[in-house]
Amino acid sequence: LGAGDGPGGGDGGGGGPGFDPELAAAIALTRDLLDRGAESDQGFLPLRLRLQAQAAAASGEPGLCTRAREALLPYADHWLVSMFGWDISGPAMHWIALCDQALGHLEEAAEGFTAAARSAELLQSRPWALEANSRLAQVMAARGLPAAPTLAERVSQEADELGMLQVAARVRPLLTDRHEPAPSAYAFRFDGAVWQLTYEGRTVAMPDAKGLRDLRLLLSRPGADVPAVHLLAPEGGAEVVAAGSMGGDAVLDDEAKRRYKRHLARLDEEIDRAPTPERAEKLVRERAALLDELRRAAGLGGRTRRLGDEAERARKAVTARIRDTLRRLDARHPALAAHLRGAISTGATCAYRPSGPVPGWRL
C-alpha cells in the first residue's frame, strides 16, 4: 500500500477497470477498527496501527488519515514491535508522516520522515532508513526542492544493493525527468581512477584517498552520526560497528564468538545464492572485512583486545586521514576545503552538518 494508491486506482471508479477489491476491503476494515477503538489484543496493536496508517494513506480520505494519525501519536517516539519481535514495523513517526503526506501537510511530513530516518540510522537499520528517505524524497519533490533528485538517486542505488525493489521503484519517477546538472552543481564523485570534486562552480581532480571516501560517505548522510569504526571498515556491516564501538569489555567473549561464527556462515550461504556477480563481490568484501576485524580483536600473541582500543584506533585513523585530505584540498580547492572543515566533525562518531542549506551533491 502506498499514499495515493486508492481503491479506484487513481480514476475514482467504484468498480471500474482500476478498482482494487483487496485495497477496498483493507480500507473498510480500517474504518471499522478505528470506530471500535483499542479493543484488539495489545500484542498486535503496533502492527494494527501501522496497517491502519497504510490503508488510510492509500485511501486518501482526510478523515481516515487524521484518525489513523491520532491513534499513532501516543507512540510517536517509539518503534512499532508486535508479537514479541516477530514483526517490526519501524518507527511510529514514519507512519505518522505517511498520514501527513497523504493529507498534503508536506512540511510536517518532511519533519516526520527526517526523524524516522534519523531513528533508523541510530539503530543502524538501513532498510528502515531507506523507507523513510524514499518518502522524504517524494515530499521534497512535491515541495519543489532541488535536492530531491539527489536524495532519490542515493535511495535508488542503496535500495538496489539491498534488493528493496519497491523502494527503488518508488523513487524512480523522481529521476525520470532529471536534467543534467549545470556546470556549477556540487559534485563529489569517483570515476574509478580519480575524484571529480565540484564546489561553487569550480572543479578539481584528486587522486584516490581513504579520506575522500570517508568524506563522500558523510556527504551522503547529512546530519547523521556515523561511527568512526564504520568509516574504517564500511564493508563489515553491523557486527564490525558493534565490535568497535563499545567500551572497555573484552572484544570477544564466548557469545560474541558464536555470533560472529553464525554471521560468517550466513555470509557464506548468501555468497553461494547471490543472484549477480556484483552482489557476490559485495558479500565477499563484507566477509573479508569481518575476518579482518576478528583478527584485530584477537590481538597479538592471542591476547584478547579491549573494545575501547578498537574505537580509539578507528577515531584516530579516520580523523587523521580526513584532516590529511582537507590539507591537500587547501591547496587545490580552498573554498571546498573551507566548507568541509566547517561542516565536518570527527571523533568516535563523525558527521556532516553544514550551517546553511545542504548543497545538492552529486555523489
Automatic annotation (TrEMBL):
Protein's name according to its UniProt entry: ATPase
